[in-house]
Design goal:
The protein has one domain: Molybdopterin biosynthesis MoaE subunit (Aldehyde Oxidoreductase, domain 3). The longest helix has 18 residues. β5 and β6 form a beta hairpin. With about 150 residues, it is an alpha+beta fold. The chain starts with 9 loop residues before the first strand and ends with a strand. Strands 1, 2, 3, 4, 5, 6, 7 and 8 form an 8-stranded mixed beta sheet that branches.
Length: about 150
């Protein structure tokens, strides 16, 4: 396997539908791909401590996060016969209803793409040094717990 270069996964603010559509559209020329799997993480308008969450403000230890994401990426590529993987994570403020995480895996067949996407999302949630401050309607916040 060729060693891939670390990629910047961070996007300032929400990940827009147009951005997602453009990334997906770029793959129609790759005719060796037979299956894609896509995960979109969206900010929920939950209620916590009787306060409605209106947005999440994401911060990261960027250098460490990019190194960890590279490790995750290489490990997933070693386990599954993927054609490609794309990961984008928001930094900054993302309002309820907007997309904050986009994971897109592709393979010759659907099962490796699906399994790789699932594993990548689970590892991002568990291992990436990214934090979310849930902002309440009005004033106040709480730190988000990854589940």
């Amino acid at each position: 396997m060729n060693e891939r270069k670390p990629k910047n996964i961070f996007v300032e603010g929400a990940i827009t539908p147009a951005f997602i559509a453009d990334r997906i559209g770029e793959h129609s020329r790759k005719t060796e791909i037979g299956g894609h799997s896509i995960f979109l993480g969206q900010v929920r308008a939950d209620v916590a401590e009787e306060n409605k969450i209106i947005a999440i403000e994401y911060t990261a230890y960027t250098e460490m996060a990019l190194g960890k994401m590279h490790e995750i990426r290489e490990a997933v590529f070693a386990r599954y016969p993927l054609s490609c993987m794309h990961v984008y994570h928001s930094l900054g403020r993302v309002a309820a209803g907007e997309i904050c995480l986009f994971v897109f895996t592709s393979s010759a067949h659907r099962k490796p793409a699906i399994d790789a996407c699932t594993e990548t999302v689970e590892r991002i949630k568990a291992e990436l040094p990214v934090w979310g401050k849930e902002l309440f309607e009005g004033t106040g916040y709480q730190w988000k717990e990854n589940k």
